[in-house]
Amino acid sequence: MESRKSLFLWVSMIVFILHFKTLSVRGLGVNWGTRASHPLSPNIVVKLMKDNGFDKVKLFEAEPEVLDALRNSGLQVMLGIPNDFLAPLASGVRVAEDWVAKNVSAYVSRGVDIRYVAVGNEPFLKTYKNMFTNATLPALQNIQAALIKAGLGRQVKITVPLNADVYESNSGVPSEGNFRSDIHSLMISIIQFLSDNAAPLTINIYPFLSLYADPHFPIDFAFFAGTNAPVVDGTISYTNVFDANYDTLVWALEKNGFPGMPVIVGEIGWPTDGDQNANLGYARKFNQGLISRIIQGQGTPKRKTPPDVYIFGLIDEDRKSIDPGNFERHWGVFNYDGTVKYRLDLGSNNRTLVSAKGVRYLSRQWCVMAEGASESDPNLADSVKYACTYADCTSLGYGSSCNGLDARGNASYAFNQYFQTFNQQKGTCDFHNLSIVTKIQPTIGMSDCKYEIMIDVGKHEKPRNPVTSMAALGWRLQDLSYSGVVAVILSFIISWVS
């Protein structure tokens, strides 16, 4: 009897823990991009996601090391296909079958929980000038056929991540929403195909870009705290751009015969550097507002149930293209090394973000402008330009975190970025006798500007991830609702005690 009472208490504690887990973020995913000069070990990144409560991850391409690290992780995966693959995939179903066999079937069989294949990434952006317009639907159809042939048609769903510019409202109110006239018929065909295969539509929504594109955009409308100038649409007052944007899509779907079409928000977030409105304060404000809505189960006026959301992004990427703006390399909730940028309340027992574990760094040394070097040296400007051509200097741009440095500070920052990017190798701090290696950490005087030391990609510690019976149980129970888990455990308790 005593042993049964002990077991009763033990299992009750599990139920209690599960209860608190349900008060934290559920249905929260994150985008994991890998365009970095010194990417973290995939094993460390997977542990980072799990430690911070992300249960879904969206990948932009199939990378073997990344997919291997996700084996038996319990993370649900949306696996992306780059736009450059669309034309080959559209050319014939055999190409799609080969891709699915290599990148989906092979990893599903090894314990990677792939739930979606994202065919392309925002292929209908106007800046692409119809480059991918004709290939997207055939590629989608061929991937679906390949998944069915592989026996994965029910387990793995197709989708197409689209930018929110595929729909619009001429009057600015959501109820006037419809799909862009130049791709209207194509959008209907894609949505019909997704619907026929019980697959969702994926939309990327970026309130930051609304502010970036229009200096007169009301800044408080970009966040979730309300506004003094709401967008009034009939009886509904929209107080933030996300609700208005998302409901514009919902209206467009309803008008075209798809009122129940499931929608995933594939990308949404706020950058922390590279622009005057890209900073830690605004990023925290936006992402905290977003996460709080998810915790509370808050949807939009047109759809009361919140969609699955994938925050963009997980970690900063210093090799991303900056054609859209310097902010492109600073979307991460975490810094390049997996350290926390800012506090986020994750909703249960004061839970907040935690940094990556097992990260190793290069030696504690920096490359800076030599004390005796002159700011008027004719080689200085070209040396800084050279350093910033091959290393990331976006933090020096207008409105960015290091924008206030003087000439010597700018040069030191650029030299150090180059030195760190090339692993502190001999000769990488040689800028016409203008620079010197120092083991004394440079002072800046600006709280958000730092002379970094790069991580050592050859010395990552592999976090332990022991497989226990309870861990296996948790993995099997992950698809059950909280009430389902509790019901199973309680029925076990009652049968045992009785």
TrEMBL record:
<dbReference type="GO" id="GO:0098552">
    <property type="term" value="C:side of membrane"/>
</dbReference>
<dbReference type="InterPro" id="IPR000490">
    <property type="entry name" value="Glyco_hydro_17"/>
</dbReference>
<dbReference type="GO" id="GO:0042973">
    <property type="term" value="F:glucan endo-1,3-beta-D-glucosidase activity"/>
</dbReference>
<keyword id="KW-1015">Disulfide bond</keyword>
<keyword id="KW-0378">Hydrolase</keyword>
<dbReference type="GO" id="GO:0005975">
    <property type="term" value="P:carbohydrate metabolic process"/>
</dbReference>
<dbReference type="GO" id="GO:0006952">
    <property type="term" value="P:defense response"/>
</dbReference>
<keyword id="KW-1003">Cell membrane</keyword>
<keyword id="KW-0611">Plant defense</keyword>
<dbReference type="Pfam" id="PF00332">
    <property type="entry name" value="Glyco_hydro_17"/>
</dbReference>
<dbReference type="GO" id="GO:0005886">
    <property type="term" value="C:plasma membrane"/>
</dbReference>
<dbReference type="InterPro" id="IPR012946">
    <property type="entry name" value="X8"/>
</dbReference>
<keyword id="KW-0326">Glycosidase</keyword>
<keyword id="KW-0449">Lipoprotein</keyword>
<comment type="similarity">
    <text>Belongs to the glycosyl hydrolase 17 family.</text>
</comment>
<protein>
    <recommendedName>
        <fullName>glucan endo-1,3-beta-D-glucosidase</fullName>
        <ecNumber>3.2.1.39</ecNumber>
    </recommendedName>
</protein>
<feature type="domain" description="X8">
    <location>
        <begin position="365"/>
        <end position="451"/>
    </location>
</feature>
<dbReference type="InterPro" id="IPR017853">
    <property type="entry name" value="GH"/>
</dbReference>
<keyword id="KW-0325">Glycoprotein</keyword>
<dbReference type="InterPro" id="IPR044965">
    <property type="entry name" value="Glyco_hydro_17_plant"/>
</dbReference>
<dbReference type="Pfam" id="PF07983">
    <property type="entry name" value="X8"/>
</dbReference>
<keyword id="KW-0336">GPI-anchor</keyword>
<feature type="signal peptide">
    <location>
        <begin position="1"/>
        <end position="27"/>
    </location>
</feature>
<keyword id="KW-0732">Signal</keyword>
<keyword id="KW-0472">Membrane</keyword>
